[in-house]
């Protein structure tokens, strides 16, 4: 398959006589895709029922006429002002009970059935009109961005009660499952159950986790109705543009409804805004060397192999605490890293910088006056390179890492130690794997086979489900579980006998403790355990211990369990040993250097702001190398 490039474009922001020139320049640049429409509702239906398709008809004509393929977004992330007259109660409510106002975007509650129907109706009208012309669809825009999954509205409360009734059927069963006898929290009727906010002290964690599962299901349902509305009229593939480190809904579940997954990659914004253990001093203009890669691998799983970068940063953004410009070469490097992880397409956000409103400080490929911005030349370079390059051949990585949304919610609800976070733990181990030059597949927790993986990591998983349990039991490679895997039930109660209940490993955690920063537990072989430690009664071999004798790494045959959160040094050492034992091609990469192996090639990326050497090759800062893969 030919990898391709594209851009996000807002014809409604520019005079119509400008469109042909923009379209021509996009095509000349070598772009294939242009995404439009996702915020245009107020111009498509300025008042209820007054549809103005004419301008969008003409915009699509111009773009297709220039040889571009159109990705059309449904506009439900920006309901126009009049929608609030129709549904005054459609706004999401924050955890303090305050409605979030009109005046930016994503001002809706996923549980509001009236707005959900109106949004699906609009998606259906667009699909009916453009279904045979559009090459791909995008539902909504960035579910969960700006903290918009959790809404504490009346609509959410009512839908939550219905959800609980369907899940538990009997109020006594709910009381028993949640342990509501504790603090006399028993309910006699569904109508007594409120949302778990504004309680005096913490709510029952089972209640809070149920709300998190419900909130995720509301997003999944929201997406489903739009997908259904589009599919009635169009066969074009459908995707949604996910975000970096947005974990409030189960992306695998929305992914299963659509043909492709896409995501929005803002490496410099992310580094200063949300990367765990990000090194802003070293990577200010390059972005974290692992954060994008993690999401490429995650969304490859969400899209079941088919995924794009729908928005790629081309210059400074506007929304992080500080917004540096990319080091020359990074706009190119980020694109090639995405292709090396299997992206079908990379699209830049946005074509031309807006002179007005919230994002006037956000770079595009063009400046606000339509002259070339620095990102444009690098986009042109990628287009030229792509035209000549052999295709990227996808393959299975040698290492698997299980990432699970419900486990993220569970540890947010009951961290036990401040900062215990499933994403952060998975990313911490992923970073260690990448520093060893290893390529990784991220898999969901309902994975049924680990065939072909020399090493699998299952960190921080709330409960091991049947299929994954069987896959671990049958794995031919090494499997490392923990820390904090399979200790609790799906309502955050303890299991009896104590967990973890791991295939192939006879071990039980009888006590867990957590530590603040600055109180690490040293390990005999070097490095430390920080934050989390399980105390096991075990029949397994103890192959690593803390200096005080506490078992840290347990092993029986191919199955291993880590009892604590290893610091970077310990993680790298432990994973290095396992990867070497598994026969993998391990490298001790210098800071900033990263590898990605595909079916035929080895890509080498230099995220450092100084030259690096790999295998006899020099890489300048932001350098990219394509090597034939060692057999
Ligand atoms: C994304 C969003 C775009 C734009 C961009 C700015 O999160 O989808 O609409 O706001 O960020 O970086």
Please provide a brief summary of the model.
With 631 residues, the protein is α/β, with parallel strands linked by helices. It folds into 3 domains: 4-149 and 218-388, Glycosidases (TIM Barrel); 155-207, no CATH class; 399-581, Rossmann fold.
Proportion of strand residues: 15-25%
Side-by-side strand order of the widest sheet: 5-4-3-2-1-9-8-7-6
* CATH architecture designation of the largest domain: Alpha-Beta Barrel
Helix content: 25-40%
- Euclidean distance between termini CA atoms: 23 Å
**What's the number of extended β-strand segments?**
25
CATH topology of the largest domain: TIM Barrel
Q: Which small-molecule species are bound to the chains here?
A: beta-D-galactopyranose
CATH class division of the largest domain: Alpha Beta
Question: How many domains make up the coordinates?
Answer: 3
CATH superfamily of the largest domain: Glycosidases
Count of individual helical segments = 18
Largest sheet: 9 strands, parallel
The shape, in one word, is globular
Q: What class, by secondary structure content?
A: alpha/beta
| Rg measurement, Å | 25 Å
Low-confidence stretches: none
Provide the residue-averaged pLDDT: 98
Features:
alpha/beta; 32% helix; 631 residues; 9-stranded parallel sheet; Rossmann fold; 18 helices; binds beta-D-galactopyranose; TIM Barrel; 3 domains; 25 strands; globular
Describe what you observe in this structure:
This protein is an alpha/beta fold. It is 32% helix and 18% strand. It has three domains: 317 residues, TIM Barrel; 53 residues, no CATH class; 183 residues, 3-Layer(aba) Sandwich (Rossmann fold). The two termini are 23 Å apart. 52% of the residues are buried. The mean pLDDT is 98. Beta-D-galactopyranose (GAL) binds next to loops.
């Amino acid at each position: 398959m030919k990898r391709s490039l594209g851009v996000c474009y807002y014809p409604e922001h520019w005079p119509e006589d400008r469109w042909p020139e923009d379209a021509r320049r996009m095509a000349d640049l070598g772009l294939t895709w242009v995404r439009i429409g996702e915020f245009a509702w107020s111009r498509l239906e300025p008042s209820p029922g007054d549809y103005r398709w004419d301008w969008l008809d003409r915009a699509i004509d111009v773009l297709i006429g220039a040889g571009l393929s159109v990705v059309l977004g449904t506009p439900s992330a920006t309901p126009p002002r009049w929608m609030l007259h129709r549904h005054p109660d459609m706004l999401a409510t924050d955890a303090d009970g305050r409605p979030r106002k009109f005046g930016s975007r994503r001002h809706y509650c996923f549980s509001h059935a009236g707005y959900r129907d109106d949004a699906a109706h609009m998606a259906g009208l667009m699909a009916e009109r453009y279904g045979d012309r559009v090459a791909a669809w995008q539902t909504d825009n960035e579910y969960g961005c700006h903290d918009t999954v959790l809404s504490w509205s009346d609509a959410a409360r009512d839908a939550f009660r219905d959800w609980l009734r369907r899940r538990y059927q009997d109020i006594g069963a709910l009381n028993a499952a949640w342990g509501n006898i504790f603090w006399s929290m028993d309910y006699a009727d569904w109508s007594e159950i409120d949302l778990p906010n504004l309680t005096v002290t913490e709510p029952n964690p089972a209640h809070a986790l149920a709300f998190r599962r419900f909130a995720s299901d509301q997003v999944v349902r929201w997406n489903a109705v739009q997908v259904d509305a589009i599919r009635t009229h169009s066969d074009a593939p459908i995707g949604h543009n996910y975000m970096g480190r947005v974990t409030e809904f189960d992306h695998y579940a929305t992914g299963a409804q659509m043909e492709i997954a896409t995501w929005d990659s803002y490496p410099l914004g992310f580094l200063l805004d949300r990367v765990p253990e990000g090194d802003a001093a070293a990577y200010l203009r390059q972005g974290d060397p692992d954060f994008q890669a993690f999401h490429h691998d995650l969304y490859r799983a969400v899209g079941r192999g088919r995924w794009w970068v729908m928005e790629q940063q081309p210059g400074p953004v506007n929304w992080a605490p500080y917004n540096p410009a990319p080091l020359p070469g990074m706009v190119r490097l980020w694109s090639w890293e995405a292709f090396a992880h299997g992206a079908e397409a990379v699209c830049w956000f946005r074509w031309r910088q807006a002179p007005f409103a919230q994002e006037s400080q956000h770079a595009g490929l063009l400046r606000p006056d339509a002259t070339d911005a620095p990102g444009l030349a690098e986009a042109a370079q990628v287009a030229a390179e792509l035209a000549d390059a052999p295709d990227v051949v996808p393959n299975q990585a040698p290492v698997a890492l299980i990432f699970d949304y419900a486990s993220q919610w569970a540890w947010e609800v009951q961290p036990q130690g401040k900062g215990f976070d499933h994403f952060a733990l998975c990313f911490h181990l992923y970073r260690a794997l990448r520093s060893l030059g290893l390529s990784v597949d991220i898999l969901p927790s309902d994975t049924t086979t680990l065939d072909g993986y020399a090493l699998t990591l299952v960190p921080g998983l709330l409960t091991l489900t049947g299929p994954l349990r069987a896959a671990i039991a049958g794995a031919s490679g090494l499997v490392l579980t923990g820390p904090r895997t399979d200790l609790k039930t799906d309502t955050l109660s303890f299991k009896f006998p104590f967990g973890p209940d791991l295939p192939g490993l006879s071990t039980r955690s009888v006590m867990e403790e957590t530590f603040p920063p600055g109180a690490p537990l040293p390990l005999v072989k070097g490095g430390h355990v920080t934050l989390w430690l399980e105390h096991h009664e075990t029949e397994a071999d103890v192959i690593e211990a803390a200096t005080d004798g506490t078992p840290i790494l347990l092993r029986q045959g191919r199955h291993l369990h880590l009892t604590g959160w290893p610091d970077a040094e310990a993680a790298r050492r432990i994973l290095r040993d396992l990867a070497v034992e598994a026969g993998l091609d391990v490298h001790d990469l210098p800071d900033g250097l990263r590898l990605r192996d595909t079916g035929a090639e080895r890509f080498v990326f230099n995220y450092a702001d100084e030259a690096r050497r790999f295998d006899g090759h020099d890489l300048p800062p932001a350098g990219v190398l394509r090597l034939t893969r060692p057999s």
